[in-house]
Write a structure and sequence with these properties.
165 residues, 2 domains, mainly alpha, 66% helix
Amino acid sequence: MTAAPASPDPTMEAIGHAVIEGRAGDTASARRELLSLWAGIGVTGDPLYRCSLAHYLADLYEDPAQALVWDIRALDAADAVTEQRVQDHHTGLHIAGFYPSLHLNLADNFRRLGSFEAATEHIDAAKAQASDLPQDPYGDLIRGAIQEVAEAIIEKDRTRRASAP
């Protein structure tokens, strides 16, 4: 089955545009665009928008403390997203598949900050929910990163991972 967007969504398209810009190297502009979108969405806006935006915005910060703030917002918003809302946005997506990556990012930020107990809690949550990942390159990427972060936590390694976004 091929998953496809249910219908065009200007907000998700704007988020996607900023993500592409950030991955191309213009992180400052991407951050500005996402922060502007965040101001329009607000803390009580559509939780799918908040989750997606915060998840991607966190990746645009080198400082793990700044990234952590946005990763916490992403996880909080995910808890408010319904399966129906995800399906309305994109057939084939499931909210359960968001959680391994969200917990992975939290674990990685806590690890980089030296909070290894909190990092362990989140990497354990990511591992427990990894079965909800798709069996595709994206799922393989997240499963590999979970293993990488788990090893770094055990080693009490606080350095940024080369494979981090």
